[in-house]
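Proteins fold reproducibly. Look at a sample protein:
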Amino acid sequence: MSAASAVRFRGPLADSYAGAVALVVCALIPYLAMSAALDPLLPVLSKSLPLSRQALQLTTSMANAGYAFGTVIAVQFAVHLRGRRMLFLYASLFVIASVLTALAFTPGFFIAGHIVQGLTTSLMLIAAVPPLVTGWPASKMPITGVIMNLCIFGAVAVGPVVGGIQAGAGDWRPLFWLVAVIGALALL
């Protein structure tokens, strides 16, 4: 094996701060904004899927529990497994779950997809954020702090507005398709 073939492929954004930021934004914002957008969408979802409001609230709670559990398990995975490979796996599973949720014509697909969205978002959080925080010079820390705050708090703040717009349109699926597309951008 020659030295040239031993070099692993690194994507065009591998050594880019902007690429690291884009990865974190695409990994965190979709689920956080969507979970905040669900409350205004509950009547539309109840009408589209044969689920009661209580069942949808339970689904949201289970997705949030998946988010919490995923954070704990992701730390364990991060200690033993390669972060980049795991991040690719997490983002892929998130996109699959988002597509499953957007396509859901039965309550089971919606419930399973949404819970996996919550789980995989927290897995991506643990895999994507530490390299952004620790992999760059200290001079980037203020920018990183602003980006993280905008990602987390901005997504949660804009979620109800987006949910209200979608509820006004009477359709919930475009929001879930948008979440899938943004999640897919994390794979680039």
Summary: The radius of gyration is 18 Å. The chain has one domain: 17-185.
